[in-house]
């Protein structure tokens, strides 16, 4: 039969000695006695475990009366008085003694970095489709839909990097904001194509969140400081004549010749560049 309520052991002495003494002196409960078990409704601290805090301003007998331990006058005796945690008595504080280093570039356009190895991982998981012949290339919205990054994270664009190039084996056709030389070489070595395309803030929002627009705005030309990047073949810029000719060959059938000659493409691109520079 169960024993009666066991009182808490004293603070001194070992638990083994106390438990043996309590068990030896405990008597079995009779059938008419109520048995009390330790539960949440009778759980309490030991006597003296919680000490009531001393109240200030309750007379001289409380040892914290009159000025309540603040003394007479002064900055620390006033309500709301005191000094800041870093105050050093008037001498030059530490945060002013240390020199400044670096600066924050207000004109920076940080890109979201994504490696080509990560693209291959998501392709293997089946979350990122590989464009077939005749399909549109992958864009940043496809990367968002696959879960590689978030639309709210992309503020200025995405830059493709070459980490994991040894694992890339799928022929990817992709349009991205920026790309490193190693990423370009890795994608083209796997049989894919890459094109760097400029998106301003409005065009980027229209690409990632098209449901926010009743009429999608046209994509703006890059500013003059970025024209050199997007007209370079090394960067596979979309304004490069060779890239435009490659895109024209992909869209046209193999039997029919292209409607626009390469010289026309080159002349048109150079004219747009000259107009931007002027």
General description of the model:
The chain is mostly helical and 278 residues long. Helices cover 29% and strands 6% of the residues. The chain has nine helices and five strands. It has helices spanning 15-25, 94-97, 116-124, 140-146, 181-189, 201-208, 224-230, 241-251, 262-277; strands at 112-115, 158-161, 173-176, 178-179, 193-196. The strands form two sheets. It has a three-stranded parallel sheet. A two-stranded parallel sheet has the order 3-5. α8 (241-251) packs across α9.
What does this entry show, briefly?
The protein has helices at about 15-25, 95, 115-125, 140-145, 180-190, 200-210, 225-230, 240-250, 260-275, and strands at about 110-115, 160, 175, 180, 195. With about 280 residues, the protein is mostly helical. It is elongated and about 95 Å long.
The secondary structure category is mainly alpha
Poorly predicted regions are: 256-264
What best-fitting shape do the alpha-carbon axes yield? elongated
Strand content: 5-15%
Round the mean pLDDT to the nearest integer and report it: 85
How many strands, what sense, and barrel or not for the largest sheet? Answer: 3 strands, parallel
Overall helicity: 25-40%
Number of helices: 9
End-to-end distance: 101 Å
| DSSP strand tally | 5
Q: How are the strands ordered across the major sheet? A: 1-2-4
Rounded to an integer in angstroms, the radius of gyration calculated over CA atoms is: 38 Å
Series of H and E elements: HHEHHEEEHEHHHH
């Amino acid at each position: 039969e169960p024993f009666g309520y066991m009182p808490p052991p004293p603070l001194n002495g070992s638990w083994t000695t106390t438990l043996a003494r309590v068990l030896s002196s405990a008597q079995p409960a009779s059938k008419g006695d109520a048995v009390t078990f330790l539960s949440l409704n009778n759980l309490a601290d030991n006597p003296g475990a919680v000490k009531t805090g001393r109240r200030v301003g309750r007379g001289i007998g409380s040892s914290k009366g009159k000025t309540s331990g603040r003394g007479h006058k002064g900055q620390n005796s006033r309500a709301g008085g005191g000094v800041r945690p870093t105050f050093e008595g008037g001498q030059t504080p530490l945060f002013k003694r240390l020199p400044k280093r670096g600066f924050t570039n207000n004109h920076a356009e940080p890109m979201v970095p994504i490696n080509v190895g990560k693209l291959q991982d998501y392709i293997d998981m089946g979350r990122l489709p590989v464009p077939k012949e005749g399909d549109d290339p992958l864009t940043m919205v496809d990367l968002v839909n696959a879960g590689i990054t978030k639309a709210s994270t992309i503020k200025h664009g995405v830059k493709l990097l070459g980490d994991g190039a040894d694992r890339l084996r799928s022929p990817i056709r992709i349009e991205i904001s920026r790309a490193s030389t190693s990423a370009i070489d890795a994608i083209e070595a796997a049989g894919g194509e890459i094109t760097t395309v400029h998106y301003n803030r409005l065009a980027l929002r229209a690409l990632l969140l098209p449901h926010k627009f009743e009429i999608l705005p046209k994509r703006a030309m890059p500013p003059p400081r970025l024209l050199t990047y997007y007209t370079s073949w090394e960067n596979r810029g979309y304004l490069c004549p060779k890239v435009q000719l490659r895109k024209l060959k992909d869209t046209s059938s193999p039997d029919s010749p292209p409607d626009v000659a390469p010289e026309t493409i080159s002349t048109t691109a150079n004219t747009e560049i000259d107009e931007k520079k002027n």
